[in-house]
Amino acid sequence: MSMVPLTAQGAETLRSELQELKTVRRPTVIQAIAEAREHGDLKENAEYHAAREQQSFIEGRIKEIESKLSHARIIDITQMNDDGKVIFGTTVELLDIETEEKVTYRIVGDDEASIKLGLISYSSPLARAIIGKREGDEVEFQAPGGKKEFEIEKVSYI
Predict the structure, then answer these.
(1) Number of structural domains found in the chain
(2) Bridge partners, 139 (sequence order)
Protein backbone atom coordinates (compact mmCIF):
# COMPACT_ATOMS: atom_id res chain seq x y z
CA MET A 1 0.00 0.00 0.00
CA SER A 2 1.43 3.39 -0.96
CA MET A 3 1.47 6.49 1.20
CA VAL A 4 -1.85 8.36 1.23
CA PRO A 5 -2.21 11.99 2.30
CA LEU A 6 -4.12 12.74 5.47
CA THR A 7 -4.61 16.06 7.22
CA ALA A 8 -3.37 16.42 10.79
CA GLN A 9 -7.00 16.87 11.84
CA GLY A 10 -8.05 13.70 10.00
CA ALA A 11 -5.24 11.73 11.63
CA GLU A 12 -6.30 12.95 15.06
CA THR A 13 -9.90 11.92 14.36
CA LEU A 14 -8.73 8.42 13.40
CA ARG A 15 -6.52 8.19 16.50
CA SER A 16 -9.47 9.19 18.71
CA GLU A 17 -11.70 6.57 17.11
CA LEU A 18 -8.98 3.95 17.53
CA GLN A 19 -8.58 4.86 21.20
CA GLU A 20 -12.32 4.54 21.81
CA LEU A 21 -12.50 1.21 19.99
CA LYS A 22 -9.63 -0.23 22.03
CA THR A 23 -10.48 1.18 25.46
CA VAL A 24 -14.28 1.37 25.47
CA ARG A 25 -16.00 -0.66 22.78
CA ARG A 26 -13.68 -3.70 22.76
CA PRO A 27 -13.91 -4.29 26.54
CA THR A 28 -17.69 -3.74 26.43
CA VAL A 29 -18.21 -6.37 23.74
CA ILE A 30 -15.87 -8.82 25.50
CA GLN A 31 -17.99 -8.42 28.62
CA ALA A 32 -21.18 -8.96 26.57
CA ILE A 33 -19.74 -12.18 25.12
CA ALA A 34 -18.85 -13.43 28.61
CA GLU A 35 -22.35 -12.69 29.88
CA ALA A 36 -23.96 -14.38 26.88
CA ARG A 37 -21.82 -17.50 27.43
CA GLU A 38 -23.20 -17.77 30.95
CA HIS A 39 -26.70 -18.19 29.49
CA GLY A 40 -25.89 -21.68 28.23
CA ASP A 41 -26.28 -23.25 24.76
CA LEU A 42 -24.34 -21.07 22.33
CA LYS A 43 -25.99 -22.49 19.18
CA GLU A 44 -29.31 -20.85 19.98
CA ASN A 45 -28.00 -17.85 21.88
CA ALA A 46 -28.80 -14.72 19.83
CA GLU A 47 -27.08 -12.41 22.31
CA TYR A 48 -23.85 -14.38 21.95
CA HIS A 49 -23.96 -14.32 18.14
CA ALA A 50 -24.76 -10.59 18.07
CA ALA A 51 -21.88 -9.84 20.44
CA ARG A 52 -19.47 -11.96 18.37
CA GLU A 53 -20.57 -10.15 15.22
CA GLN A 54 -20.00 -6.80 16.93
CA GLN A 55 -16.58 -7.99 18.11
CA SER A 56 -15.69 -8.96 14.54
CA PHE A 57 -16.71 -5.50 13.30
CA ILE A 58 -14.68 -3.73 16.02
CA GLU A 59 -11.55 -5.81 15.40
CA GLY A 60 -11.85 -5.22 11.64
CA ARG A 61 -12.21 -1.47 12.15
CA ILE A 62 -9.20 -1.41 14.49
CA LYS A 63 -7.06 -3.15 11.85
CA GLU A 64 -8.35 -0.80 9.14
CA ILE A 65 -7.54 2.36 11.15
CA GLU A 66 -4.11 1.06 12.17
CA SER A 67 -3.34 0.31 8.52
CA LYS A 68 -4.51 3.75 7.37
CA LEU A 69 -2.42 5.50 10.01
CA SER A 70 0.67 3.42 9.26
CA HIS A 71 0.41 4.26 5.54
CA ALA A 72 -0.57 7.90 5.96
CA ARG A 73 1.50 10.88 5.02
CA ILE A 74 0.22 13.37 7.56
CA ILE A 75 0.24 16.92 6.28
CA ASP A 76 -0.11 19.78 8.74
CA ILE A 77 -1.24 22.75 6.69
CA THR A 78 -0.34 25.21 9.46
CA GLN A 79 3.34 24.35 8.86
CA MET A 80 3.17 25.26 5.16
CA ASN A 81 4.16 28.55 3.54
CA ASP A 82 1.08 30.73 3.15
CA ASP A 83 1.73 31.88 -0.41
CA GLY A 84 -1.87 31.89 -1.65
CA LYS A 85 -1.54 28.69 -3.66
CA VAL A 86 -4.23 26.00 -3.35
CA ILE A 87 -2.67 22.82 -1.97
CA PHE A 88 -3.76 19.76 -0.01
CA GLY A 89 -5.34 20.86 3.28
CA THR A 90 -6.18 24.43 2.29
CA THR A 91 -9.65 25.89 2.69
CA VAL A 92 -10.84 27.54 -0.49
CA GLU A 93 -13.69 30.00 -0.98
CA LEU A 94 -15.05 29.80 -4.50
CA LEU A 95 -17.49 31.94 -6.47
CA ASP A 96 -19.68 30.10 -8.99
CA ILE A 97 -19.36 32.37 -12.01
CA GLU A 98 -22.75 31.35 -13.44
CA THR A 99 -24.89 31.62 -10.28
CA GLU A 100 -22.67 34.02 -8.25
CA GLU A 101 -23.08 31.64 -5.30
CA LYS A 102 -20.17 31.32 -2.89
CA VAL A 103 -19.05 27.93 -1.59
CA THR A 104 -16.23 26.95 0.74
CA TYR A 105 -14.38 23.64 0.64
CA ARG A 106 -11.37 22.17 2.38
CA ILE A 107 -9.20 19.78 0.36
CA VAL A 108 -8.61 16.58 2.35
CA GLY A 109 -7.75 12.90 1.92
CA ASP A 110 -10.18 10.38 0.45
CA ASP A 111 -11.13 8.96 3.87
CA GLU A 112 -11.88 12.40 5.30
CA ALA A 113 -14.07 13.68 2.48
CA SER A 114 -17.65 14.71 3.31
CA ILE A 115 -19.43 17.12 1.00
CA LYS A 116 -21.95 17.87 3.77
CA LEU A 117 -19.10 19.13 5.94
CA GLY A 118 -17.45 21.02 3.07
CA LEU A 119 -14.57 18.52 2.83
CA ILE A 120 -13.64 17.41 -0.68
CA SER A 121 -11.17 14.74 -1.66
CA TYR A 122 -7.93 15.84 -3.30
CA SER A 123 -8.78 13.36 -6.08
CA SER A 124 -12.19 14.91 -6.86
CA PRO A 125 -12.59 16.74 -10.18
CA LEU A 126 -13.00 20.11 -8.45
CA ALA A 127 -9.95 19.67 -6.22
CA ARG A 128 -7.83 18.54 -9.16
CA ALA A 129 -8.94 21.66 -11.06
CA ILE A 130 -8.06 24.12 -8.28
CA ILE A 131 -4.89 22.60 -6.81
CA GLY A 132 -1.93 24.73 -7.86
CA LYS A 133 -4.08 27.77 -8.62
CA ARG A 134 -4.12 31.05 -6.67
CA GLU A 135 -6.61 33.63 -5.44
CA GLY A 136 -8.22 35.42 -8.39
CA ASP A 137 -7.71 32.51 -10.80
CA GLU A 138 -10.69 31.14 -12.68
CA VAL A 139 -11.06 27.40 -13.13
CA GLU A 140 -13.30 25.29 -15.32
CA PHE A 141 -13.93 21.63 -14.70
CA GLN A 142 -16.29 18.86 -15.71
CA ALA A 143 -18.76 18.18 -12.88
CA PRO A 144 -21.26 15.31 -12.97
CA GLY A 145 -23.93 17.85 -13.94
CA GLY A 146 -21.85 19.47 -16.70
CA LYS A 147 -19.15 22.11 -16.97
CA LYS A 148 -18.74 24.46 -14.02
CA GLU A 149 -16.68 27.62 -13.69
CA PHE A 150 -15.43 29.06 -10.43
CA GLU A 151 -13.28 31.96 -9.39
CA ILE A 152 -10.98 31.37 -6.44
CA GLU A 153 -11.81 34.15 -3.99
CA LYS A 154 -9.83 33.17 -0.91
CA VAL A 155 -7.27 30.53 0.10
CA SER A 156 -6.76 29.83 3.84
CA TYR A 157 -4.05 27.80 5.51
CA ILE A 158 -5.89 26.92 8.73
Answers:
(1) 2
(2) 150
